[in-house]
Design a protein that fits this description.
The chain is of the alpha/beta class. The protein folds into three domains: 61 residues, Nucleic acid-binding proteins (OB fold (Dihydrolipoamide Acetyltransferase, E2P), Beta Barrel), CATH 2.40.50; 198 residues, Vaccinia Virus protein VP39 (Rossmann fold, 3-Layer(aba) Sandwich), CATH 3.40.50.150; 141 residues, Beta Barrel (OB fold (Dihydrolipoamide Acetyltransferase, E2P)), CATH 2.40.50. The protein is 25% helix and 31% strand. It has ten helices and 23 strands. The strands form four sheets. Strands 7-22-23-21-20-17-18-19 form an eight-stranded mixed β-sheet, with helices on both faces. It is globular, with a radius of gyration of 24 Å.
């Protein structure tokens, strides 16, 4: 039996879905972050459970051929880039295997997956960042929380973010120190600056800066706006959100605009999208183009013109609107009222008249549309990580669509839901992973479920 603080030599043979290496000693699994299959390392055991243990690397004895040199100074502390120590080829192979194994193990479905689509960029691909702002060693600092904690790791330049985001972070922190604007203190609930929210529109070069405040006003707001404008490559809008709650939710309920419109415009899937801090938008725009392309292909828009596409969990309407030109009608459903208003405005912005949007829970909307006798040819679902409720899946099946295009950021819940659909008379026909999140342990995928006999 392993013991805490024991040093053991371990051969890493596998990689968990969270990006930790796995080895075995006397049949007991040992999970070690920042290791790779093929590594041999001396490991310090830091936690022991009944059937498994956790360890950290004391010394890397023989490195894996899949290893690459880490180029981020906070990689070992931040926890965001769980796979930054792997070659990109090894990362893609691991992500493909995670998706396939979940479908086999959880879904009990044997599907021939198409090759994973890699991201056009490995670094600097994210168009959104949310930086907590705290006092660290007497200085106002922005960064990210360490894994499973609210301990701030100061990060001047995250390799996943646009380079100029680091300039904005430094300027906001320097401005706060200069003007004696205190950062938020979670223990006492005091201080003003909680988070810095940044969003970048690649196609228009617009930047949205939103400060989350533990108060109702942003001191010296106009001066800050002028200083930040000088750092942005194009137009900038500055706003703030008031959040005085003592919880982990970042944004408050409303946005107050300081300069600009409080929104930016980007283009994705041939559609212009107006984005606020509340808008859901894929963080890797160029890879999202590939993802939505797969979804459109699986919907069969190049072969037929569906009479009705039902887009569940539609957000600001990006997927449904990108498919509207290939369908007679699109109905989008989203539970967040602000997102529905965004979707309606985005349809109007693009002159799309055959799309309508409703605010409802996906399960309730599916039941309501089914009761109305609506029979969509194609149902597109793009749910959060928890997947689709079983009741909603059965309501979708009751509408008898020819196919269901399932876009997922969690292959485990995807596999679970696909199993339910198979049991209800559908079959998994095609599947493909798309790497929207290089260097992290996340991967997006699309699966086509077709009605049996069609």
């Amino acid at each position: 039996m392993l013991k805490k603080n024991q040093i053991v030599r371990l051969a890493i043979t596998d990689l968990t879905h969270e990006g930790s290496g796995v080895g075995h000693i006397d049949g007991q699994a040992v999970f070690v972050p920042r290791t790779a299959p093929g590594d041999q390392a001396d490991i310090k055991i830091v936690q022991v459970r009944n059937s498994y243990a956790y360890g950290i690397v004391e010394q890397l004895v023989t490195p894996s051929s899949d290893r690459v040199e880490n180029d981020c100074p906070v990689f070992s502390r931040c926890g965001g880039c769980a796979l930054r120590h792997l070659s990109y080829e090894a990362e893609l192979a691991a992500k493909e295997e995670w998706v396939k194994s979940n479908m086999r193990r959880i879904g009990k479905i044997d599907l021939e997956w198409e090759p994973i689509l890699l991201s056009p960029q490995m670094d600097r691909y994210r168009n959104k960042a949310q930086y907590p702002i705290r006092m660290v060693n007497g200085r106002v600092q922005a960064g990210f929380f360490a894994p499973r904690s609210h301990r701030l790791i100061p990060v001047e330049d995250c390799k996943l973010q646009p380079l100029y985001f680091a300039d904005i972070c430094r300027e906001v922190c320097a401005f706060a120190e200069e003007k004696k604007i205190p950062p938020y203190d979670e223990e006492t609930g005091s201080g003003l600056l909680r988070h810095l929210f940044l969003r970048w529109a690649e196609t228009t070069r617009q930047t949205l800066v939103c400060l989350v405040l533990n108060g109702n006003t942003l001191p010296y707001a106009q001066e800050l706006s002028e200083r930040l404008k000088a750092l942005c490559p194009g137009e900038m809008t500055l706003c703030f959100s008031v959040n005085t709650r003592r919880d982990n939710v970042i944004l408050g309920d409303s946005i107050q605009v300081v300069t600009g419109s409080g929104r930016i415009v980007d283009k994705l899937g041939g559609v212009e999208l107006s984005l606020s801090p509340f808008s859901f938008y894929q963080v890797n725009r160029n890879a999202a183009e590939l993802l939505y392309g797969v979804a459109r292909e699986y919907a069969g828009l190049a072969e037929t013109t569906p009479k009705l596409i039902l887009d569940l969990y539609c957000g600001a309407g990006a997927i449904g609107l990108s498919m509207a030109s290939g369908a007679e009608k699109v109905i989008g459903v989203e539970s967040v009222a602000a997102a529905v208003e965004d979707a309606k405005a985005n349809a109007a912005r693009n002159g799309i008249r055959n799309a309508e949007f409703m605010c409802a829970d996906a399960a309730d909307a599916a039941a309501h549309l089914q009761q109305q006798g609506l029979n969509p040819d194609v149902v597109v679902v793009d749910p959060p990580r928890k997947g689709v409720a079983e009741s909603a899946l059965k309501d979708i099946v009751a509408m008898n669509p020819k196919c269901i295009v399932y876009v997922s950021c969690n292959s485990a819940t995807l596999a679970r839901d696909c199993r339910i659909l198979v049991d209800c008379g559908y079959q998994a026909v095609r599947g493909r992973a798309v790497d929207l999140f290089p260097r992290t342990a996340h991967v997006e995928c699309v699966t086509l479920m077709s009605r049996v006999g069609k």
